[in-house]
Amino acid sequence: MLDLLPEWMRDGLGDDAAFWIGYLTNGKHLAWYASFQFTIFAALIGGALALVFGLVGASLKNARFLPLRAVGDFYSAIVRGVPDVLFFLFFPLAFEQTVEWFVSSRVCTPDSIAASVAPWPPCPQANWFLGTTEYLLLASVSLGLVYGAFATNVIHGAMRAVPQGQLEAARAYGFSAAQVRWRFQIRQMWVYALPGLSNVWLLLVKATSLLSLLQIADIVLWADRLGAPNFLPAVGLVHPDWRWRYYLALLVFYILVTWLSEKGFEALMRRAGRGVLAEVRR
User: Fold this and answer.
1) What's the Cα-to-Cα distance from 43 to each of 40, 60, 163, 201, rounded to whole Å?
2) What is the mean pLDDT of residues 44-69?
3) Which domain holds residue 103?
4) What pLDDT score was predicted for residue 100?
5) What three-state secondary structure class fits 6?
């Protein structure tokens, strides 16, 4: 990067400034900066899926059909009790091996299965090589499933908090059950749900630090690599253990995301409160 600057500018910066500019713009640091997109992508897609799963789960918990209510209760209760890291590792691995088993039933022959020396997959032709994109999508789905269970309880409670008198009045005016659900109950429940959903969102954002467990070179993995003591045989010790400095940068990043998220949810609360009775907003 320094080579792109004119010589008079390099001389004006001085040795110290030139060193830091060159150090912070080398290939590894540029890869670290690029890895922030993985965290942002996983948070946004995982958050969108969590909202979808939350709406579906809350609808199941409110269903009149007992088996559907049982499915909703099972999802919100069991998934919330499973540690994030365990589910984060289990779901992508289970999905990967399920796909490999499905493919193996069609491409593997008895001879190829007998010749295979690895316990899994059954034959080499069924091996599914996942890259960063596939792992990132699976990680986003895992985040959506886990935090969708939390969103289910938040949305379910918000739907029950809508005054029943308004729903009964809507039915008395001739609105169908679907119209009452979407035009009145779900329309007003956001006022009650958004504070809880903001907590779910921030928990999901913190969980994006687990991406490195799925072989994704994310911001946490790069911070650990860049901050570790760097020794080169040609020059000796480049720098000692600087990991705390990189972790401090990550701390600032997550604080900034938290601040922007709070501002965003405040704007959503103001938007959701429009046209809603004052006693409902309180």
Assistant:
1) 5, 25, 33, 8
2) 90
3) 34-218
4) 82
5) coil
In sequence order, the β-bridge partners of residue 219 are none
**Cα four-point dihedral sign 196, 199, 203, 204:** positive
pTM: 0.81
Q: Compute the C-alpha angle 129/131/137, nearest 5°.
A: 115
Burial (CB < 10 A; 0-12, 13-18, 19+), residue 197, is buried
pLDDT in tens, 104-160: 888 877 777 777 767 777 777 777 777 888 889 989 999 999 999 999 999 999 888
Question: Which residues pair with residue 232 across a beta bridge?
Answer: 236
Q: CA angle, 238 as apex, 25 and 211 as ends, to 5°?
A: 60
How far apart are the C-alpha atoms of 168 and 49, rounded to whole Å?
32
Residue 205: CATH number of its domain: 1.10.3720.10
Residue type, 88: F
71 within some domain? yes
Q: Which helix (H) or strand (E) holds 230?
A: strand 230-232
In a domain, 275, yes or no: no
Total tally of structural domains belonging to the chain: 1
Residues in the chain: 282
Residue 201 lies in a domain: yes
Instruction: Report yes or no on 250 lying in a domain.
Output: no
